[in-house]
Specification:
The complex is a heterodimer.
Chain A: H1 8-14, E1 17-21, H2 28-41, E2 45-50, H3 55-60, E3 74-77, E4 100-105, H4 108-119, H5 123-130, H6 133-144, H7 147-157, E5 165-169, H8 178-189, H9 192-199, H10 215-228, H11 233-243, H12 247-262, E6 266-272, H13 276-291, E7 296-304, H14 309-312, H15 317-330, H16 335-370, E8 375-380, H17 389-405
Parallel strand pairs in A: 1-5, 1-6, 2-4, 2-5, 6-7, 7-8
Antiparallel strand pairs in A: 3-4
Helix pairs in contact in A: 2-17, 4-6, 4-7, 7-8, 8-12, 9-11, 15-16
Chain B: H1 20-26, E1 30-35, H2 41-54, E2 59-63, E3 84-87, E4 90-94, H3 97-109, H4 112-120, H5 122-130, H6 134-148, E5 160-164, H7 168-184, H8 189-202, E6 207-213, H9 217-234, E7 240-246, H10 253-265, H11 268-301, E8 306-310, H12 319-331
Parallel strand pairs in B: 1-5, 1-6, 2-4, 2-5, 6-7, 7-8
Antiparallel strand pairs in B: 3-4
Helix pairs in contact in B: 2-12, 3-4, 3-6, 6-7, 6-8, 7-8, 10-11
Classes of the chains: A alpha/beta, B alpha/beta.
Chain lengths: 406, 337
Amino acid sequence: MSAAAAALPDVLRDSRLLILAGSGGVGKTTSSAALALQAALAGRRVLVLTIDPARRLLQALGLHGQDLPSNTPLEVLPLRRAHLPADALDSSGELRNRGTLHAMMLDAESGAIDMVERLLPTAALRDQVMNNRIYRAFLPALSASPDYMALELISFLMSDPRFDLLVLDTPPMHNAVDFLHAGGTLAAFINERVLKWFSKVPLPGQKSRFSILGAGTSMAMSVLGRLLGNETLPDIAEFFASFQEVLPRLRERANETDRMLRSRDTHFVIVTAPGETSLREARHLHRELREQTMHIAGFIINRVIQVPRMLADPRQLVDATARLRQPLLDGGLGLAESAALTERLVQAAARLRHLGEADQAHVASLRRLAGTDAFCTVAAQREDDIHTLAELRDLGARLLDASVAT
Amino acid sequence: MLGPMVTPSNPPLHDAPCSPLAADLLRHSVLLVTGKGGVGKSTVAVSMARLAAQRGQRVLLVELESVSRVAPLFGLPRVGPTPTEVDRRLWVSCLDSVDSLRFFFTQQLKVATLVNLALRNRAVEGFFKAVPAVKPMLFLYHLWRIEQDMGRYGEGRFDLIVCDLPTSGFTIGMYAIPDTLAHVFRVGSMATYAVGMRELLTQPGRAGLVLVTLPEEMPVTETLELRADLLRRHGIETAAIVVNGVYPHVMRPEDVAHLQAAARAAPDATREAVDEWLWAARLLAGRRERAVAYLKQLQHAMAGRVVELPFLFRRDLPLDAVDLLAHRFGATHEGAA
């Protein structure tokens, strides 16, 4: 962990890979899109990646009614520079600093197939795996856990010369930290010991070779046989046998992914929102990332109720109410109606103040957690969703400003 | 006029009316509660469990966590996999995947020595941890066995199991398990289990699926998609959709219009104050308006099976707030919005 926190603009300038992590429903996708747009406006060539569903990202980028093809980057900027306010462009109408922005959806299922194809050296082996009962049955399950595939695909995309910054919107997960272990999971599944056992199991159509097993392996196989049924073991054996040759490469990929996550130009941004659950997840994630020596750039806290000055202070409430009286009447409201509206406003303000105070306490506790190592920036609760590139740019600009202010 | 406040004078739940929808939900042997992260799925699961317990059912609330989130509500530091009675007729069990793995090994291998051998064997453990979808599989197996022991004819320990499931991804994975197993295991005990688990998920009156959402665009869209997906792929019809955090009808669009007129009429000296009031009215009216629109969309898709729970204007939800939601849950009726 570096000694002094870099503000968000520095992070956007210096990263090659920016990973936004956090529990679901905290505005991670919108934050990813907002930061990616800011980086592009600052001159970087950015690819923002989402796992699924892509619609959220498209909506945040103002691309309504468009399909994001899976595993193919879609050009957002400079193609849609007309959707930006004029001050984002230079005098010739070009994007300042010649930045670019692409968006892409990672499709886990085709990603899984691609990965197997890249890993297995011969067509015969590929066919064998693709037709394996175990593989076919687990393929949908493999795709349902997109973290399995995401990191693998990202290390591949890092070498694409069109981009110099990848912004990754991580999939919402039960435990956001699972993502970090994804790289090693397949390697753990197909590890040498498991391979060694299954290499002794007769492949479909072969005779038993159990007699040559050592006592320990024999015991383990007998346990697995009882757990899964002996008749399934040959299929599993075939599946593992296909991977035998590529195990070193698989391991190497896992190590590569690991190095990539810990690299100096990879930064994590923890995205959260007020609320006990989100806060707990954010703390947990922070601890895990630290333990694993990943670089945490900072926190984004979305959907914070920011009560304005007078309403936030109960002592000023009488004054604020008094100042409302005449303008309401001048605005055309009757005396009784005006009094009734004021009464409801006062009650509503009390509730919002209560909520605002809780949110400020959450923000303060995250600021303490961030300390001097990381930035901590806040976005206010909106009355509406983000629908245009201009709104997204405003959001990003505010996030950047607020991160410098801390 | 305003939405409910949390006060100690909340009516006792056993006096609460129980709507036909709530009564129908509580007739299942298992309620599977799921939704995107941050929508308040755990709160909804606890509320439903409280409602059922206070209405006389013996309820087991199952959490899939390494550390229980429900235990602190009842003043307990932790709860493990063994059902712990936290209140009258309410038990909590907190399972993680290792608990379910141990349970599976124990059921399969019977002999304690073998179970410990298998659990200690790093390769066996690694194999099970790394198999895709193994977590939903182990949990579904575990749940199926607990449900079989319930004794649906009154002799069992529990009348209802409420499960606080992890994210919707886990749920999709779980519903796919019987098919996956049936493909991999054509004969043998695993094939038999696949049949049993499928029955648990599909037979009427057994596992009822409750989807929790917030009245916001993406959660609502994804909830409707999840429902359609489960219906199409597995023939599973969602038992109910619970809309959590519905902003009460505190401010109306016309209030905002009045304040806008006031802001135009205000001299510079009072303008800031009027703008602050306008901010409050806009936020509340805006969120309410959107909530109503999303409720309509959900009711259109699932007529009579939508439960609306109010936003309580707080970030923490202690037991009295949970009970208030439980009360609302029981009182809910179609078109409550």
